[in-house]
Amino acid sequence: MLGPNLSFPPPSFQLLLGLTEPSAGQAWVLGKPAGNLEVRRRVGYLPELFRYQGFLSAREVLAFHFRLARLPRPVW
What we know:
Layout: H1 10-17, E1 28-29, E2 32-33, H2 37-42, H3 58-68
Antiparallel strand pairs: 1-2
């Protein structure tokens, strides 16, 4: 399951974090089911080809990521 640089290939990592749904089977991360919110807070994921939408401001991008991580939005 590890890639050539000893990392998880993106689809595997996305499944483990619950970013995509598996077609079958189960996975566990840090003793919790894959996609568990507690696990997602402890594991980071940065896609290789991440692109921000050009129509969003920096503040909107940050607010979006806080919402994705289910974290309280800071007061700016």
